[in-house]
From TrEMBL:
Coiled coil: none annotated. GO terms for molecular function: ATP binding. Residues 21-129 form the Histidine kinase/HSP90-like ATPase domain. It comes from the Bacteria. This is ATP-binding protein. InterPro entries: Anti-sigma-factor_SerPK (IPR050267), HATPase_C_sf (IPR036890), HATPase_dom (IPR003594). It comes from Streptomyces fimbriatus. Keywords: ATP-binding, Kinase, Nucleotide-binding, Serine/threonine-protein kinase, Transferase.
Length: 140
């Protein structure tokens, strides 16, 4: 019998619409700093923080709801999940020169190693994954 174990740690934060995106970024930065990533992997930190900004902004602006931000870390990836109350699933769309918006999911797509959406009975969760700096590729 081949036993494998998953080692993971996680953090969660509810972000009411009046708390703003800055509170989400500051909270995420604290945890990334505690992991030592702000020194050892500043590019990854920047990508994670911009993704936090985009996903929480989407929850507040498009879903008109609070956001639940969850970060979990395993041996291979930092999983960044944002849940909101809308059942409308996000998708990258072609940006327009006539609109200031519409680039958020394109940014997430460019920044994260992978992302996906999970519909839920009371909304959806968008999960973006970032490889742990220096970690081996997970086996397929």
């Amino acid at each position: 019998m081949n036993e494998s174990s998953v080692r993971a740690v996680g953090w969660a934060r509810s972000l009411p619409m009046d708390r703003g995106v800055k509170a989400a970024r500051d909270w995420a930065r604290e945890h990334l700093d505690a992991l030592g990533w702000t020194t050892s992997a500043p590019e990854t930190v920047d990508a994670v923080l911009l993704t936090v900004s985009e996903l929480v902004t989407n929850a507040h602006t498009h879903a008109h709801s609070d956001a639940q931000l969850i970060m979990t870390l395993d041996d291979h990836c930092l999983h960044l999940a944002v849940h909101d109350a809308s059942t409308d699933l996000p998708a990258p769309r072609r940006p327009s020169t006539e609109s200031a918006g519409g680039r958020g999911m394109l940014l997430v797509d460019a920044l994260a190693d992978a992302w996906e959406t999970h519909p839920c009975p009371h909304g959806k969760t968008v999960v973006a994954c970032f490889r742990v700096p220096g970690a081996d590729e997970p086996e397929q």
